[in-house]
User: Fold these one by one.
Assistant:
Number 1:
Amino acid sequence: VAALSSDCISHVIFYMLNPAGLHGVVSPTWMRFLCVTPIFLQHIVPCFEYLNKCGLHAAVLFQCDPVFIFPNSLVLPCAVRSTLQKQHTLPVRPIIPLVARISDQNASGAPPMTVREKNRLDKFKQLLASPNTDLEELRKHSWSGIPREVRPITWRLLSGYLPANKERRELVLKRKREEYFGFIEQYYHSRTDEHYKDTYRQIHIDIPRTNPLIPLFQQPVVQEVFERILFIWAIRHPASGYVQGINDLVTPFFVVFLSEFVTEDVENFDVAALPLDTQRNIEADSFWCMSKLLDGIQDNYTFAQPGIQNKVKALEELVSRIDEDIHNHFKKYEVEYLQFAFRWMNNLLMRELPLRCTIRLWDTYQAEAEGFSHFHLYVCAAFLIEWRKEILSMVDFQGLLMLLQNLPTIHWGNEEVGLLLAEAYRLKYMFADAPSHYKR
């Protein structure tokens, strides 16, 4: 967060939605408060860029003395610390770590494997061992979470990457993996061509910002994998090309497919230690499953991102019906849904939840019809209502935006995600087949 003073600014709110590394987004709602001068831009642009390099994803400006809040690893000058202590316009919030361990599958202290969970695992194994896996039955069992041991094969099946027929799977895997690396040989050298160099440059910039505090994603070999996956996807989908935010969507697939070969903590595992063929298989599978996901939500990333605009509008209409108090509270303090929910839609809540929670959430999304496109709307509504008390306690625009862009989910686990999904299902049951219920 950065705060700067300027004689030409009257209570300017400047924030960075930054779904994946944007250096500054000005809300049109607040343009009337902003008098842009060359001096102002000269000071604020480097500020945004520096914060972005630090891995922070939001910057808020207020009319006040200069204040810079950096990661704990940086030492603040005494003068800045003194100013910070005097600063009362920002709501007091505890510092919450940005990431928790991927491997903590349940933050609520449940035992690793209960009798019920063992029975569920046995049921999955039985379904997967069938000559022709019953995909509807597999979806039914996957809705409430997929056991870690069988999650990779289950995700491949539910995404449509693998066929239900067991005998055909190895052949399909071999063919699709060869096809992907055929794309690499055919297209990847063109990343330096004039036509594609801007796309590759943006991907190259965004990759280090993907989960910057998880060591796994800072390994050069992993970043090279992500660069290849995203570049090949972009040139094969010219209608949208690469859009910031898509980089996040590779990570759950990569972690899940990596977990097949790792028994220790995934977040600290050295991927280069794996055999090259294994690395290549993880890369190809991640590409194809991400592609299947994006096929269902590509309008989120085409020009002007109409899919996201429509989903944010639908979220606003839905919340206005299910919790009028929150809706009116936002109106009172001039909070626009786009200011916080754009990122929720663009990144599928990945910036709001620990990665382990995203993986659990995606178990259900892949089991649910149109999970990533349609059901996600109800998850976002349930997620917003989850923070009802905290939202209504904030009585200014600044506090509301800071809360909504930094919701304290770092200690969430399977139990919390399960409750969130149950509430989302209830909302879907009430409103999905009766759209007039949430239209004004």
Number 2:
Amino acid sequence: MNLRSLLSKSMLRHLHLLELLHESQYGLPTDTLIKELQCSLPVLLNDIRLINEEQDIAQIEKYKGLHQLKMQKSSSVSRLYAEFLRRSSEFQIFEALLYEQHDNITELAGELYLSVSNTQRYLKKIQAALKEIGVELKHRPLRLEGKESTIRQLYYRYFSEKNYQLEISLPTLTKEQQNLLIDFVKAFLQKNGFLQKHIFVHRLVYNLYISLWRIKNHHHFSKWQLQNEGIALPTGSVATQFQQLVFQAFNFAYDEQNCKDSFWLLYSDSLILNTNQLAAILQNNERGKTHFAIHQQLVAKFSGLLTKPLTKEEQIELSCILQNFSFLYATDGTCVNILRLDKKDFVVAMAKIYPFGVEKIKQLVTDIATSYHFYFEKDFIIAYVYWLITFVPDWMKKIKLSHKRVKILLLSSLSPTAESYLAMQITKKIYGNFEIVQGNQAEKDFMTEISHYDLILTTEDLKLDDNLAVLHIDSYLSWHNIFLIQEKVSELTENMTELAEKVS
């Protein structure tokens, strides 16, 4: 699930247009865009004009009949998503609901310079979208209620996308107050022997900020879930200054129980930061122990797919990563995204180039999820595949495919040295179990045995039997060539594996 439905129809169409062009290497023609966006030519042209006028992060230009996205060198696609969140009235209202400073729609509309009717309509959109995950919109004051971990995680995802930079930005605090909050989180990590990695600091700072607002407005995490007794609290001047900050900015006393509530990720064992913490969870948290055992089983099976299995330490680390991602959700719940679908986009892109490998991993995840009724919703499946394949960057080289090698014949009129260089580039850039025979290096007439090869790569315009698998490539290996060769090698490997399984 994601919250893209909160965007207006025009903003959602603009976002889709930008994503289509960003994913395209060379650009897309007008007809393709009209078909994908399901709009008319005047609407498309007006969308392009508005996108170019409303921001300077990226511009859409037309070159040789293709619409192309030109990003600023200093900008990333993350900034585009952040810009959509900032400009969307619906998401401005969504953020305002965290602070609960408006008793009625008229007050909220006045502060955001919106009409009352539009504000009411936007609130209904928010109410409908969040109902899917069990979160309700309440009035007097306007607020969100439901499972506390779901609401806090939802706002964490929102702030992470809106404030995409490495630098942390907390909207309602001064720079001095923000620095005190960050220092307190770092002191908390240091006191408990946790590494002060940026990703840990980032996640805990935003969650602390969100939790303080929720506590201020009397939304507390269940005490019975905050059962980790092995965590120590910071002391000294940092702790004293932070207590003063909480009283000044949030108007409540920051006692031990509120500290546990605000650091709920650690006190509820939803975030594992080191092996000592893991050992305590396995000893004292039955739910955590059960989840970790299932994750270990998944990781072990994934490791079994690799030609070089993961070490014991690597398996534990990967199991912790999977648990940190999923534990705060209900096992039969929904994985919630805001606008960015980066995990899905990544897995889909990988599947286009390495379909058989991705499908094997996806099937493995699906089997575990189904058998244990464990995070089986499709977005969870995709996320698990994402974490597995990103943990092993060269998984394409290591995954076990067909035991039979794909035989490739390279035919060209290049010099022997140039052909050898081309063959070496193919070997380096294409993943799979294959071997290349170079026509220029062959000791006998390869044409008499050409049918013995699974794939023919040629730089020439040869007339060969239609039954042969032939790809025409450039004398230099272009990105397009790499994509086509990888796609064909993956397809042939999959066919060989299926045939071998049928025979056995």
Number 3:
Amino acid sequence: MTEMVLLPEVNRSEFGANKSGFSRYVNSTHLSYSSSVSVLEEGRSFLLGLFLVFKTTVMLMIIMAALFGNLLVIVSVMRHRKLRVITNYFVVSLALADMLVAIWAMCFNFSVEVTGGRWVFGYFMCDVWNSLDVYFSTASILHLCCISVDRYYAIVQPLDYPLIMTNGRLALMLAVVWCSPAVVSFLPIFMEWYTTEEHLDFRRKNPQVCSFTVNRPYSVISSSVSFWVPGMVMIFMYYRIYVEADRQERMLYRSKVAAALLNKHLQINGISAGLTSLRQSVDADLAEVKTDPGTSKMKRERKAARTLGIIVSAFLACWLPFFLWYVISTLCGTTYCYSPPSVVTLVFWVGYFNSALNPLIYAYFNREFRAAFKKTLQSCCQFASRLTCVRLWRPRRDHVNYSNASSDIHMNNHLVTTGATLRLPPTGATSFDPRLISNVSEGEIINLQTQSEAVI
């Protein structure tokens, strides 16, 4: 659309019959308007470039945090025996899924954002990218669903937990978690069930565009399997866990209050017969309650449940905007529910950010993970410093030059054979240690030997 240029009102009588003067005035006005437009375009280009740099930086930080943070989780659990429990095997598997999200989903999305929406990997890889994105996102939430079920049995049924969560059931749950997402990712996408015929024709004619446009049945089924149903299961499980943890906390508080009231009652009534032994037994019972392995185990289970509850809440907060946009935009269509590209990018990367958020939650809310992270990072720093020292020390060693190889051999042999004679008498002189004069030349050794013989 052509822009309309509005010139200021001019009194043409001022120019009179001089038409050239009026034309020069119009040309100068056009030039000033063009210069102002060019300044605005330069400012707009600068802001767009600045926004692109900011967006690229944030995306790279999310990718690196997801890669190295989840790698730290895996290494810490494998290196520390204390963390090798059934729940943390689910956590390790979740960290692996988040790492694969960063490698396959985030990196491809980052390439699209950097190239201005252009897909450079071909038609087939577009289907691969969409399939892996759906697959690993679904695997992440199914892992969290399994973790919530595991925590439920560990806290609500602690006595039956070792019989319920066996190694065989653990392997079966992990196999289901890793295999079932293929039903809503690879199968419908490569069979072309997920989208419309119009979109398939558009993709064949424009292979440089990779957009994930789905039909209504697929959007409802895939979102239910990937988010809504597992999310409701997790919310229900953690609600039951919260109720049970609160009940156990109240029972523990009541037992402590009852023991304190009993002790106070004995003091008020002045019961002397057996008071000392009874008080000692009460104190022993309280100490046993405080140091009971079952009580400490119950506290650890509640702390782990709280940490994993925060993880689930963060997951729902990160992925809920995406799935709301995903379902609403598909059901009402792009005609009535058009979303700008910036909104689509935002909801995608807010969901991706969850893959980088889980290690931060572990480090902040779980003391055992925090200590394991610290030890792992210290070991990595020590290994890196050791490698650096070796690289810096070896060249210096190679550049050491001796004046005479035979003199060096003679020096070592002479120090070994006459080490006992290279001592001054204890009248005030300093004793010589052969280890301290390894850089002495041959002439200095002879002089030193002459001096020692003269003293003897």
Number 4:
Amino acid sequence: MIWTVLLLVNGILFFLLLSSRSRSKREPPLDKGFIPWLGHALDFGKDAAKFLTRMKKKHGDIFTVRVAGHYVTVLLDPNSYDAVLQDSGSLDFSRYAQVLMDRIFKLRLPNHNPTVEKAIMKQHFQGKSLTYLNSTMQRNLQALLTSETPPNQKDWKRNGLFNFCYGLLFRAGYLTLFGGEQNNNGADTKQIYKEYRTFDDLLTKMARTTLNSGEKRVAGGARERLWELLSPTGLSESSSPWLRHYRQHLREGGADTDTQTKAMLLQLWATQGNVGPAAFWLLAFLLTTPEAMKAVRREFNRLSLNTDTTQAPTLDPRQPTPVFDSVLEETLRLTAAPFITREVLQNKTLRMANGQEYDLRQGDRVCLFPFVSPQMDPDIYLEPETFKYDRFLNGDGTPKRVFYKGGQRLKYYTMPWGAGSNACVGKPFAIDAIRQFVHLVLTHLEVELCEPESGLPAVNTSRHGFGMLQPEGDLFIRYRHSIGNNIL
């Protein structure tokens, strides 16, 4: 009994010790919350945008909050972001990334080197290699869309728009980047997509270690089935050059076969987890905003297409599409919500754009959340919560790239693709895939809302911090092959 009491007392003392931090004069405002150790973890995880907006109104553009035993300094001044993004000496990206890799994918890479991995991606997602990937992706999208809506089938089909977009783009992307793998247990892309969606639905809870016992079983089962589906006996020459190069890098780094397979699941999520949701939101905005739909259709109808006897006509990525580009940028402004996180390796003084300096403690984390600012900042955008398809167009129809806050021109006026070492190398590939997909859907299908007066579904706020937001539920559509259009 006495030992139980002593352990309890020691535990309480340790708990109080962790909760006893106070703010020094040169540090950002400190908000620990009312719950010892846990702090603001519940509000942060439930709706980070709402919580951090409230903290911003209370404390300003920089503050430190306690989240499940960790102290996180949140910076929400886009003019000061470079002070974090350009510091690779005192601030580190890879440590926290490795924590998430272990929690979500059960992956621990020996000799993990993000710089080398990014260099490999740059080699295969730029120049002639990008042209090859774009062409392969276009063929796969056309084939899948043809199987989904055969020209001789005139009846309407009904589906959720999110499932429609995510499914087709995921499957096309899988075939483009992973489809050359041998011996994937004979599974077709629909089966892989189904398992992936089960896994993806629980991803944020895996990251936050908040799965209940039943969810742990579901997530673990989906993860293991995906490992089986992604575990090849070898590579064929038809595998994407990026995939072959990446596997070679893993082997040379000492990764065994199981580790390589786990890394494939990580790459599957990294390459396919955002394109489908982005296309969903874009089409959802168009279907619920007739003026925007009319403008995009008008622009698409004026474009000339690549004509090749070996495949159906496709968009030339070199052709300017300023209206579509504005719609995409506005869509991403409203729905792309990644965190940019760094771990403080040593005590550091952070200098803000206004000249104010703040001390950061070793062992803390720093978090940028561009969704709150600049993307939803009312000091930058008029009516920031409203979709305006031409927000990123000048009056003469040219792309708008100049935005201000407080009279100062912004370097970062939206950040859906990250920045610095977090910048997305696959951005050109993703943009071309979304543009080709939307063009195919709008020019070769008749698409209607099942309920014309229905609005957009609510956002799943627990996805804040993990890339593209996803909806709660779906937006139901009906579609069929466009009569008189048989070029798919």
